[in-house]
Design brief:
alpha/beta; TIM Barrel; eight-stranded mixed β-barrel; 9 helices; 9 strands; 35% helix; globular
Length: 289
């Protein structure tokens, strides 16, 4: 069995090779009436197949690797400790998503330092919320709004959706329909408050179990540390790709999640502009007040 999470979380040559698109084998040559011709035909097929394999080895038909994307970013929480954001900026990190809240009563202890530190260093930043299945979406949206300041220059807010089967405090496993309803509620409240279309972060297993074919009207940020997203998510359109949990960036001690945007720097600017919606920040639905 192949796990999505590698022992070191990185994208290796072997992982990237899983994305190789092989050309189809040539059609078998039909044999003639004589046994000699049939044998010759089979030999020709073998030779042709061998030549085709050699050709595939010479030409690399793989998806782009993380290093091929020009817009690089990170996501951080309290576990990264004290971050030297000016060093992060100097390392060509274009954006950072910062953990703000979890559930309806937990806030990340490093959020404020990271939120203001990243902005002071010139790193585009946004906040994310880790969804908890044992609190209502209204409570969680209100908690996120309470902790994350409104800033029109910030990146769109992020809803982090993933399984946590080992939780000791919440054993609930919502159905697909329940998940969709709760996500829509949270996303609508947050979008109306911040005036930006939120991003949905998702892991391979959660996407497979609950989100295939859904929420195509939202930007999707995928986790895929063992290969290109097209291998793990099929034809799902994605905007952000978290490609390793053991990245290294100057200014951060230890490991950090590394991410990339699917497009050029001009595409990134267009994406941010398109995320803005014309909704007053004061129009929060009553359930979130």
């Amino acid at each position: 069995m192949v796990s999505d999470r590698l022992s070191d979380g990185s994208v290796t040559a072997r992982d990237k090779n899983t994305a190789v698109r092989r050309r189809p084998d040539p059609a078998s040559v039909r044999g003639g009436a004589s046994s000699f011709r049939r044998i010759a035909s089979r030999l020709a097929t073998v030779v042709a197949a061998g030549l085709m394999v050699s050709a595939c080895a010479l030409f690399d038909f793989e998806e782009p690797g993380p290093e091929d994307y020009p817009v690089q970013g990170i996501d951080v929480s309290k576990y990264q400790g004290d971050i030297e954001w000016h060093q992060v900026k100097a390392a060509d990190i274009e954006f950072a998503f910062i953990k703000a809240t979890e559930g309806g009563d937990h806030s990340d202890t490093r959020f404020e330092d990271n939120w203001y530190g990243a902005k002071a260093a010139g790193v585009r930043r946004g906040a994310y919320h880790f969804y908890y299945f044992c609190r209502t979406p209204e409570e969680q949206a209100a908690w996120f709004i309470q902790n994350v300041p409104y800033d029109p220059t910030a990146l769109p807010p992020v809803l982090d959706m993933e399984w946590y089967h080992d939780s000791k405090t919440c054993k609930r496993i919502p159905t697909r329909a329940e998940i969709h309803q709760e996500m829509r509620t949270f996303l609508t409240i947050v979008e109306r408050y911040y005036g930006k279309r939120p991003i949905i972060y998702v892991t391979v297993d959660f996407h497979r179990d609950r989100l295939v074919g859904a929420f195509n009207d939202y930007p999707i940020w995928v986790r895929s540390v063992a290969g290109h997203p097209t291998i793990r998510y099929g034809d799902r359109d994605w905007t952000m790709w978290q490609y390793t949990a053991t990245g290294r960036v100057p200014g951060i001690r230890g490991n950090v999640d590394r991410n990339t945007f699917d497009g050029s720097k001009k595409d990134f600017a267009r994406f941010l502009a398109a995320s803005q919606i014309d909704v007053p920040t004061s129009s929060i639905v009553s359930s979130a007040e």
